[in-house]
Write a structure and sequence with these properties.
It holds the Pfam family RVT_1. By secondary structure, the chain is α+β, with helices and mostly antiparallel strands. Helices cover 45% and strands 18% of the residues. The chain has one domain.
């Protein structure tokens, strides 16, 4: 499961489209994909661990 998450989150690519023109693709090494069902859950897990470390 952890390996699947690592692969899913690594080398994410995105681009911007304005009207009919697309920008070049850019690779993102960090962050969660927008619109994914898993993104809010993974964010909460991260924040929970962060709060525990800071407490």
């Amino acid at each position: 499961m952890l390996r699947w998450l690592q692969v899913w989150l690594s080398n994410r690519r995105a681009w911007v489209r304005v009207n009919d023109t697309c920008s070049k693709k850019r690779v993102f090494a960090q962050g969660l994909p927008q619109g994914s069902v898993l993104s809010p859950l993974l964010f909460l897990i991260y924040v929970d661990d962060l709060v525990r470390e800071l407490s």
